[in-house]
């Protein structure tokens, strides 16, 4: 049975890192980084907005209960957003929540920040391993 949430999930637009970079460079899109503050501080896309979608706690990862409120404090529902995490899972969930909340112009970046780094888009002198976070859902390169 199709639920409203499954319909929203099907409407999440996922793009690769090169398409994301093109949107950020030329189309007025903003980069919403939904990784933890620790991941963001390790390395991030220039001018990114960091609003964690999940928090690491002793009990495991918990959804940020203030996520939508924090996004609405810095973005309007008309803003164009490229949403990314480390590998694409959290950002997909964040896009689903944003679409349900009425944000119309959100794109999930496939592969997340790790793919951004792997494709040479980070433009940083640090070794890739220092910029990325190890993820059990993504094989190391």
From TrEMBL:
* InterPro entries named among the record's database cross-references: Rhodanese-like_dom, Rhodanese-like_dom_sf, STR17/STR18/HARC1-like
Q: Which GO terms describe its biological process?
A: detoxification of arsenic-containing substance
Name the Pfam families for this protein.
Rhodanese
Q: Where does the source fall among the domains of life?
A: Eukaryota
Domain spans labelled Rhodanese: 25-125
Q: Name one GO cellular component term.
A: nucleus
What is the protein's given name?
Rhodanese domain-containing protein
Annotated GO MF terms: arsenate reductase activity
């Amino acid at each position: 049975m199709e639920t409203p949430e499954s319909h929203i999930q099907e409407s999440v637009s996922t793009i690769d890192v090169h398409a994301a970079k093109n949107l950020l460079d030329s189309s007025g899109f903003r980069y919403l980084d939904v990784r933890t503050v620790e991941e963001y501080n390790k390395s991030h896309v220039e001018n990114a907005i960091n609003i964690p979608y999940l928090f690491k706690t002793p009990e495991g990862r918990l959804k940020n209960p203030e996520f939508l409120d924090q996004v609405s404090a810095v973005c309007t529902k008309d803003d164009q957003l490229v949403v990314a995490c480390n590998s694409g899972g959290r950002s997909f969930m964040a896009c689903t929540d944003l679409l349900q909340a009425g944000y119309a112009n959100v794109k999930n970046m496939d592969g997340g920040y790790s793919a951004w780094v792997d494709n040479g888009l980070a433009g940083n002198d640090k070794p890739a391993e220092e910029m990325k976070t190890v993820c059990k859902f993504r094989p190391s390169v």
